[in-house]
Amino acid sequence: MRLIAFLLPRLAIAALTMLGVSLLVFVSLRLIPGGFAEVLLGPFATPEARAMVAAKYGLDDSIAVQFGKWLVALLQGDFGTSMVTRRPVIDEFVRRAPVTTEVALLTLAFALGVGFPLGVWSGVAEGSRSRRAAFGRLIGALGASVPEFVLGSALIFVFSRWSLGLKVGGFVPLGEDVWANLKTMILPTASLSVFGIALILRTTRDAVLRTMTEGHVLAAVGRGQTPWSIVRHHVLRNAAIPIVTVASTYFGFLMGGAVIAEILFSIPGVGYYIFSSLEGRDYAVVQAGVLLAAFVFVAMSMLADLAYAGIDPRIGAKRSGT
How many angstroms from the chain centroid is the CA of residue 160? Predict the structure, then answer.
């Protein structure tokens, strides 16, 4: 019962969020200048030809009627058919999702593997005003201020000009050759993870600093426990909640489509597919893509809530009203 009471409000909010996102993206796409007929036929097409294309794809109905038809089909599990390739949209996403998932997992693993220990190290050293604390602040500031397209472009230039053992472009699926796949993934992962490292580092450092001033930590200091024993047994568990929040949100962003990295490095993932479909005004693909990205964000948020309850049972009891 406690789990049901914990989940029901979140499921209701998630459903309303998905409905709002679907309506917003549906209307916004049709307000963009240059519809599908214009992109397909070109600027010199006759009004009659455009009207025929609009009638063929149901674009001559009102927006309300089009949205109603799309929503009914969506509730039946039909994400629509690509207006360009005439293939089911869901098939394209299923084919491309493993690529984006690999990018997201590698990036998150690298960001956590570097940002988390650096954040703990910087947070513990902050009170002493040591060089370690200054180094942590510098890394956090630099990582947050360098756009991923700038870093990605710089990496492409360097590794294209000088042969340094890594491939630029020429994506190789993981199932074909693991090592060749990893060689093509290192550069996009590096360009994406810099911001994630800075985000997780700063979040971890701030959480560690807050936790270090709490009573039970000060009591452990008074008992003479070593600093790293205090961090391991008292600080990390209590500082984990904001870190889980940031990591889950960051992963949701990556799964929604790391568009810039996929475009720069020619990775055939979900983000690249949505971007190319937006250029061609392939409404069905963009609508489904944005909706799936929103679903990933909502799902990650709910998983983070469940993780909170596991980390600190008091949170689960409070949020379920018991």
Answer: 28
